[in-house]
Design a protein that fits this description.
Elements (H helix, E strand, L loop, with lengths): L4 E5 L9 H15 L3 E6 L12 E4 L2 E4 L2 E7 L4 H10 L3 E4 L4 H13 L3 E4 L4 H4 L9 H12 L4 E4 L2 H9 L9 E3 L16 H6 L7 E6 L8 H14 L3 E6 L5 H7 L4 E4 L3 H9 L3 E4 L8 H8 L4 E4 L14 E4 L4 H13 L1 H15 L4 H16 L1
Parallel strand pairs: 1-2, 1-6, 2-3, 6-7, 7-8, 8-9, 10-11, 10-13, 11-12, 13-14, 14-15
Antiparallel strand pairs: 4-5
Protein backbone atom coordinates (compact mmCIF):
# COMPACT_ATOMS: atom_id res chain seq x y z
CA UNK A 1 0.00 0.00 0.00
CA UNK A 2 1.24 3.52 -0.80
CA UNK A 3 1.85 6.04 1.94
CA UNK A 4 -1.30 6.98 3.81
CA UNK A 5 -2.54 10.54 4.17
CA UNK A 6 -4.44 10.81 7.45
CA UNK A 7 -6.41 13.87 8.58
CA UNK A 8 -7.05 13.79 12.34
CA UNK A 9 -9.60 16.11 13.97
CA UNK A 10 -9.59 16.56 17.74
CA UNK A 11 -10.83 18.93 20.43
CA UNK A 12 -7.59 18.50 22.38
CA UNK A 13 -4.12 17.80 21.07
CA UNK A 14 -1.65 19.95 22.97
CA UNK A 15 -3.38 22.56 25.17
CA UNK A 16 -4.19 20.10 27.99
CA UNK A 17 -2.03 17.15 28.96
CA UNK A 18 -4.51 14.33 29.53
CA UNK A 19 -5.27 10.82 28.36
CA UNK A 20 -6.80 12.03 25.10
CA UNK A 21 -3.92 14.26 24.01
CA UNK A 22 -1.23 11.77 25.06
CA UNK A 23 -2.95 8.89 23.27
CA UNK A 24 -3.42 10.86 20.05
CA UNK A 25 0.16 12.13 20.09
CA UNK A 26 1.44 8.57 20.46
CA UNK A 27 -0.77 7.53 17.56
CA UNK A 28 0.45 10.32 15.28
CA UNK A 29 4.07 9.57 16.19
CA UNK A 30 3.49 5.89 15.38
CA UNK A 31 1.84 6.70 12.05
CA UNK A 32 4.75 8.93 11.03
CA UNK A 33 7.22 6.19 11.93
CA UNK A 34 5.39 3.91 9.47
CA UNK A 35 5.82 6.56 6.75
CA UNK A 36 2.28 7.96 6.83
CA UNK A 37 1.58 11.67 6.35
CA UNK A 38 -0.61 13.18 9.07
CA UNK A 39 -2.33 16.55 9.44
CA UNK A 40 -3.90 17.25 12.83
CA UNK A 41 -6.67 19.85 13.05
CA UNK A 42 -7.48 21.16 16.51
CA UNK A 43 -7.44 24.08 18.95
CA UNK A 44 -4.31 25.34 20.65
CA UNK A 45 -3.12 28.04 23.05
CA UNK A 46 -0.14 30.37 23.30
CA UNK A 47 1.63 28.10 25.82
CA UNK A 48 0.61 24.49 25.14
CA UNK A 49 0.90 21.89 27.89
CA UNK A 50 2.95 19.51 25.73
CA UNK A 51 5.13 19.46 22.65
CA UNK A 52 2.96 17.78 20.06
CA UNK A 53 3.87 15.20 17.46
CA UNK A 54 3.39 15.92 13.77
CA UNK A 55 1.86 18.97 12.08
CA UNK A 56 -0.94 20.76 13.91
CA UNK A 57 -3.26 23.01 11.94
CA UNK A 58 -4.81 25.37 14.53
CA UNK A 59 -8.53 26.04 14.27
CA UNK A 60 -10.53 28.82 15.97
CA UNK A 61 -11.74 28.06 19.49
CA UNK A 62 -12.98 29.75 22.65
CA UNK A 63 -12.63 28.96 26.33
CA UNK A 64 -15.31 26.64 27.68
CA UNK A 65 -17.73 28.50 29.98
CA UNK A 66 -16.78 27.84 33.58
CA UNK A 67 -13.87 25.63 32.49
CA UNK A 68 -11.37 27.97 30.80
CA UNK A 69 -8.68 25.30 30.56
CA UNK A 70 -10.82 23.51 27.95
CA UNK A 71 -11.45 24.83 24.43
CA UNK A 72 -14.61 24.73 22.30
CA UNK A 73 -13.85 24.58 18.59
CA UNK A 74 -15.77 26.91 16.28
CA UNK A 75 -15.54 24.97 13.05
CA UNK A 76 -13.29 24.58 10.02
CA UNK A 77 -12.65 27.93 8.28
CA UNK A 78 -12.12 28.18 4.53
CA UNK A 79 -8.32 28.47 4.70
CA UNK A 80 -8.02 25.32 6.81
CA UNK A 81 -10.58 23.58 4.61
CA UNK A 82 -8.49 24.44 1.54
CA UNK A 83 -5.43 22.97 3.24
CA UNK A 84 -7.41 19.80 3.93
CA UNK A 85 -8.53 19.66 0.30
CA UNK A 86 -4.94 20.01 -0.93
CA UNK A 87 -3.75 17.36 1.52
CA UNK A 88 -6.26 14.93 -0.05
CA UNK A 89 -6.58 12.49 2.88
CA UNK A 90 -7.21 8.79 2.43
CA UNK A 91 -9.01 8.69 5.79
CA UNK A 92 -10.63 11.30 8.01
CA UNK A 93 -10.28 10.31 11.67
CA UNK A 94 -12.50 12.29 14.07
CA UNK A 95 -11.59 12.06 17.75
CA UNK A 96 -14.16 14.53 19.12
CA UNK A 97 -17.79 14.88 17.97
CA UNK A 98 -17.76 18.67 18.48
CA UNK A 99 -18.32 21.52 16.02
CA UNK A 100 -14.98 20.84 14.34
CA UNK A 101 -15.78 17.14 14.21
CA UNK A 102 -19.15 17.86 12.63
CA UNK A 103 -17.53 20.07 9.96
CA UNK A 104 -14.94 17.36 9.27
CA UNK A 105 -17.67 14.74 8.92
CA UNK A 106 -19.62 16.96 6.53
CA UNK A 107 -16.52 17.61 4.39
CA UNK A 108 -15.56 13.93 4.26
CA UNK A 109 -19.04 12.85 3.20
CA UNK A 110 -19.08 15.40 0.38
CA UNK A 111 -15.55 14.37 -0.67
CA UNK A 112 -16.37 10.64 -0.42
CA UNK A 113 -13.49 10.04 2.00
CA UNK A 114 -13.84 7.18 4.51
CA UNK A 115 -14.68 8.41 8.02
CA UNK A 116 -13.50 6.74 11.22
CA UNK A 117 -13.83 7.92 14.79
CA UNK A 118 -12.34 7.14 18.19
CA UNK A 119 -14.34 7.37 21.41
CA UNK A 120 -12.14 9.04 24.03
CA UNK A 121 -14.47 10.95 26.34
CA UNK A 122 -17.62 9.53 27.91
CA UNK A 123 -19.41 12.88 27.66
CA UNK A 124 -22.84 11.76 28.87
CA UNK A 125 -21.40 10.47 32.16
CA UNK A 126 -20.11 13.98 32.96
CA UNK A 127 -23.57 15.54 33.04
CA UNK A 128 -24.57 14.44 36.55
CA UNK A 129 -21.54 16.22 38.04
CA UNK A 130 -22.91 19.52 36.70
CA UNK A 131 -26.64 18.91 37.35
CA UNK A 132 -27.30 18.46 33.62
CA UNK A 133 -28.83 15.00 33.69
CA UNK A 134 -31.80 16.31 31.69
CA UNK A 135 -29.52 16.60 28.63
CA UNK A 136 -28.42 12.96 28.62
CA UNK A 137 -31.10 11.81 26.19
CA UNK A 138 -30.28 14.61 23.76
CA UNK A 139 -26.58 13.78 24.06
CA UNK A 140 -27.09 10.12 23.18
CA UNK A 141 -29.31 11.02 20.21
CA UNK A 142 -26.62 13.29 18.79
CA UNK A 143 -23.88 10.69 19.34
CA UNK A 144 -26.03 8.04 17.66
CA UNK A 145 -26.53 10.30 14.65
CA UNK A 146 -22.86 11.30 14.49
CA UNK A 147 -21.33 7.83 14.77
CA UNK A 148 -23.83 6.36 12.33
CA UNK A 149 -21.83 8.11 9.60
CA UNK A 150 -18.56 6.41 10.59
CA UNK A 151 -17.27 3.24 8.93
CA UNK A 152 -15.30 2.28 12.03
CA UNK A 153 -15.55 3.44 15.65
CA UNK A 154 -12.57 2.75 17.92
CA UNK A 155 -13.38 2.19 21.59
CA UNK A 156 -10.82 1.44 24.31
CA UNK A 157 -12.53 -1.51 26.04
CA UNK A 158 -15.11 -4.22 25.31
CA UNK A 159 -17.25 -2.89 28.18
CA UNK A 160 -17.30 0.57 26.59
CA UNK A 161 -18.29 -1.04 23.28
CA UNK A 162 -21.17 -2.80 25.07
CA UNK A 163 -22.41 0.48 26.53
CA UNK A 164 -22.33 2.24 23.17
CA UNK A 165 -24.07 -0.70 21.55
CA UNK A 166 -26.80 -0.55 24.20
CA UNK A 167 -27.56 2.98 22.96
CA UNK A 168 -27.73 1.87 19.35
CA UNK A 169 -24.23 3.09 18.43
CA UNK A 170 -22.20 0.78 16.22
CA UNK A 171 -25.17 -1.42 15.36
CA UNK A 172 -23.68 -2.13 11.92
CA UNK A 173 -21.75 -5.39 12.11
CA UNK A 174 -18.03 -4.82 12.67
CA UNK A 175 -18.27 -1.06 13.14
CA UNK A 176 -17.01 -1.06 16.73
CA UNK A 177 -13.32 -1.93 17.00
CA UNK A 178 -11.17 -2.15 20.14
CA UNK A 179 -8.32 0.35 20.35
CA UNK A 180 -7.00 -0.08 23.87
CA UNK A 181 -4.26 2.01 25.48
CA UNK A 182 -0.68 1.08 26.21
CA UNK A 183 1.84 1.66 28.95
CA UNK A 184 5.61 1.96 28.98
CA UNK A 185 6.55 -0.78 31.44
CA UNK A 186 10.18 0.35 31.45
CA UNK A 187 9.02 3.75 32.76
CA UNK A 188 6.27 2.58 35.10
CA UNK A 189 7.61 -0.29 37.17
CA UNK A 190 7.79 -1.43 40.82
CA UNK A 191 11.54 -0.95 40.47
CA UNK A 192 10.97 2.81 40.79
CA UNK A 193 9.93 2.38 44.44
CA UNK A 194 12.40 4.36 46.53
CA UNK A 195 12.39 4.56 50.34
CA UNK A 196 14.36 7.80 50.16
CA UNK A 197 11.63 9.29 47.92
CA UNK A 198 9.00 8.32 50.48
CA UNK A 199 10.95 9.86 53.35
CA UNK A 200 11.52 13.07 51.41
CA UNK A 201 7.77 13.34 50.92
CA UNK A 202 6.93 12.73 54.56
CA UNK A 203 6.02 9.03 54.44
CA UNK A 204 7.48 6.45 56.80
CA UNK A 205 8.17 2.81 55.96
CA UNK A 206 5.03 1.75 57.85
CA UNK A 207 2.66 4.21 56.20
CA UNK A 208 0.10 2.86 53.73
CA UNK A 209 -0.04 5.49 50.99
CA UNK A 210 -3.33 5.77 49.09
CA UNK A 211 -2.88 7.68 45.84
CA UNK A 212 -5.06 9.43 43.28
CA UNK A 213 -3.57 10.57 39.93
CA UNK A 214 -5.54 12.72 37.51
CA UNK A 215 -6.77 16.19 36.71
CA UNK A 216 -8.53 17.71 39.69
CA UNK A 217 -12.09 18.11 38.42
CA UNK A 218 -15.32 17.00 40.05
CA UNK A 219 -16.18 14.50 37.33
CA UNK A 220 -13.31 12.32 38.58
CA UNK A 221 -15.53 11.63 41.63
CA UNK A 222 -13.14 13.50 43.89
CA UNK A 223 -15.72 14.11 46.61
CA UNK A 224 -16.13 10.38 47.16
CA UNK A 225 -12.35 9.98 47.17
CA UNK A 226 -12.09 12.64 49.87
CA UNK A 227 -14.89 11.14 51.98
CA UNK A 228 -13.35 7.66 51.92
CA UNK A 229 -9.84 8.93 52.66
CA UNK A 230 -11.09 10.89 55.67
CA UNK A 231 -12.72 7.70 56.96
CA UNK A 232 -9.50 5.72 56.49
CA UNK A 233 -7.37 8.37 58.20
CA UNK A 234 -9.71 8.29 61.20
CA UNK A 235 -9.75 4.48 61.41
CA UNK A 236 -6.13 3.59 60.58
CA UNK A 237 -3.16 5.58 61.94
CA UNK A 238 -0.95 4.24 59.14
CA UNK A 239 -3.28 5.43 56.36
CA UNK A 240 -1.85 8.37 54.41
CA UNK A 241 -2.94 9.89 51.13
CA UNK A 242 -1.40 11.59 48.13
CA UNK A 243 -2.97 13.42 45.19
CA UNK A 244 -0.93 13.83 42.01
CA UNK A 245 -2.30 16.36 39.57
CA UNK A 246 -3.70 19.84 39.25
CA UNK A 247 -6.94 21.42 38.20
CA UNK A 248 -9.69 23.93 38.94
CA UNK A 249 -10.95 22.28 42.17
CA UNK A 250 -7.55 21.82 43.80
CA UNK A 251 -8.14 24.41 46.52
CA UNK A 252 -11.51 22.92 47.45
CA UNK A 253 -10.07 19.41 47.67
CA UNK A 254 -7.14 20.68 49.71
CA UNK A 255 -9.58 22.11 52.24
CA UNK A 256 -11.37 18.76 52.42
CA UNK A 257 -8.10 16.85 52.87
CA UNK A 258 -5.72 18.97 54.96
CA UNK A 259 -3.44 16.01 55.78
CA UNK A 260 -3.04 14.86 52.17
CA UNK A 261 0.17 15.39 50.20
CA UNK A 262 -0.53 17.39 47.03
CA UNK A 263 2.40 16.99 44.63
CA UNK A 264 0.96 19.02 41.77
CA UNK A 265 1.35 17.87 38.18
CA UNK A 266 4.14 15.30 37.66
CA UNK A 267 5.66 13.66 34.58
CA UNK A 268 8.46 11.27 33.74
CA UNK A 269 10.51 9.79 36.56
CA UNK A 270 8.81 12.01 39.14
CA UNK A 271 5.45 10.49 38.24
CA UNK A 272 6.91 6.97 38.13
CA UNK A 273 8.40 7.41 41.62
CA UNK A 274 5.05 8.69 42.92
CA UNK A 275 3.20 5.64 41.65
CA UNK A 276 5.80 3.14 42.83
CA UNK A 277 6.17 4.94 46.15
CA UNK A 278 2.48 4.36 46.87
CA UNK A 279 0.73 1.28 48.26
CA UNK A 280 -2.84 1.57 46.90
CA UNK A 281 -4.24 3.31 43.83
CA UNK A 282 -7.72 4.70 44.50
CA UNK A 283 -9.53 6.06 41.44
CA UNK A 284 -13.36 6.17 41.77
CA UNK A 285 -14.02 8.01 38.50
CA UNK A 286 -16.78 6.59 36.28
CA UNK A 287 -16.20 9.02 33.40
CA UNK A 288 -13.19 7.21 31.93
CA UNK A 289 -13.42 5.38 28.62
CA UNK A 290 -10.25 3.46 29.55
CA UNK A 291 -8.23 4.68 32.51
CA UNK A 292 -4.63 5.36 31.49
CA UNK A 293 -3.68 6.25 35.05
CA UNK A 294 -5.04 2.94 36.31
CA UNK A 295 -2.87 1.08 33.81
CA UNK A 296 0.19 3.10 34.86
CA UNK A 297 -0.56 2.29 38.50
CA UNK A 298 -0.88 -1.41 37.66
CA UNK A 299 2.46 -1.42 35.86
CA UNK A 300 3.94 0.25 38.94
CA UNK A 301 2.76 -2.64 41.09
CA UNK A 302 -0.27 -1.15 42.84
CA UNK A 303 -3.53 -2.88 43.76
CA UNK A 304 -6.30 -0.70 42.33
CA UNK A 305 -9.60 0.34 43.89
CA UNK A 306 -11.78 1.76 41.11
CA UNK A 307 -15.36 2.44 40.12
CA UNK A 308 -17.23 -0.48 38.60
CA UNK A 309 -17.62 1.35 35.31
CA UNK A 310 -16.96 0.76 31.63
CA UNK A 311 -13.46 2.22 31.62
CA UNK A 312 -12.17 0.04 34.47
CA UNK A 313 -13.74 -3.35 33.87
CA UNK A 314 -11.10 -4.43 31.37
CA UNK A 315 -8.24 -3.47 33.68
CA UNK A 316 -9.19 -4.40 37.23
CA UNK A 317 -10.23 -8.00 37.86
CA UNK A 318 -12.29 -7.79 41.04
CA UNK A 319 -10.55 -9.62 43.86
CA UNK A 320 -7.46 -10.35 41.77
CA UNK A 321 -5.47 -7.16 41.13
CA UNK A 322 -7.83 -4.87 43.03
CA UNK A 323 -11.49 -4.18 43.62
CA UNK A 324 -14.35 -2.50 41.75
CA UNK A 325 -17.21 -0.82 43.63
CA UNK A 326 -20.44 0.85 42.45
CA UNK A 327 -19.64 4.48 41.73
CA UNK A 328 -22.07 5.89 44.30
CA UNK A 329 -21.58 3.25 47.03
CA UNK A 330 -19.29 4.89 49.56
CA UNK A 331 -19.77 1.97 51.94
CA UNK A 332 -18.39 -0.48 49.39
CA UNK A 333 -15.36 1.70 48.73
CA UNK A 334 -14.73 1.97 52.48
CA UNK A 335 -14.97 -1.80 52.84
CA UNK A 336 -12.52 -2.64 50.06
CA UNK A 337 -10.13 0.17 50.98
CA UNK A 338 -10.08 -1.09 54.58
CA UNK A 339 -9.21 -4.61 53.42
CA UNK A 340 -6.28 -3.25 51.45
CA UNK A 341 -5.02 -1.01 54.24
CA UNK A 342 -5.25 -3.82 56.80
CA UNK A 343 -3.42 -6.56 54.85
CA UNK A 344 0.10 -6.18 53.54
CA UNK A 345 -0.05 -9.74 52.19
CA UNK A 346 -3.17 -8.92 50.16
CA UNK A 347 -1.52 -5.81 48.74
CA UNK A 348 1.58 -7.80 47.84
CA UNK A 349 -0.38 -10.52 46.03
CA UNK A 350 -2.52 -8.01 44.12
CA UNK A 351 0.62 -6.04 43.24
CA UNK A 352 2.04 -9.04 41.40
CA UNK A 353 -1.24 -9.55 39.54
CA UNK A 354 -1.35 -5.88 38.51
CA UNK A 355 2.15 -6.04 37.03
CA UNK A 356 1.32 -9.27 35.22
CA UNK A 357 -1.86 -7.87 33.67
CA UNK A 358 -0.21 -4.58 32.65
CA UNK A 359 2.14 -6.48 30.35
CA UNK A 360 -0.82 -7.27 28.08
CA UNK A 361 -0.91 -3.61 27.04
CA UNK A 362 1.96 -2.51 24.79
CA UNK A 363 1.71 0.53 22.54
CA UNK A 364 3.42 -1.24 19.64
CA UNK A 365 0.81 -3.99 19.42
CA UNK A 366 -2.16 -1.73 20.17
CA UNK A 367 -1.26 0.89 17.57
CA UNK A 368 -0.29 -1.81 15.08
CA UNK A 369 -3.78 -3.25 15.38
CA UNK A 370 -5.33 0.17 14.74
CA UNK A 371 -3.22 0.68 11.62
CA UNK A 372 -4.44 -2.70 10.36
CA UNK A 373 -8.02 -1.47 10.83
CA UNK A 374 -7.20 1.53 8.65
CA UNK A 375 -5.73 -0.73 5.98
CA UNK A 376 -8.64 -3.18 6.09
CA UNK A 377 -11.05 -0.29 5.57
CA UNK A 378 -9.17 1.01 2.54
CA UNK A 379 -8.80 -2.46 1.04
Amino acid sequence: MSKLNIALFTGNYNHIRDGVSLTLNKWVDYLQQTGANVLVFGPTVDEPALDHAGTLVPVPSIKAPGRPEYRITLGLPSAEKNRLQTFDPDIVHIATPDILGYQALKWAKEAHVPIVSSYHTHFTSYLKYYNLQFAEGIGWKYLHWFYDHCSQIYVPTPSMAEELHSHGIGSKNGTLKIWARGVDTSQFTPGKRDDAWRREHGFSADDVVITFVSRLVWEKNLKLFADVVRYLEAEYPAARSMIVGDGPVKDEIREMLPDTLFTGFLTGDELAHAYAGSDIFFFPSDTETFGNVTLEAMASGLPCLVADAAGSKSLVDHGRNGYRAPVDDEGAFRHYASKLVESEDLRHQMSKESVKKSKEFTWQKINGDLLKNYQDLLN
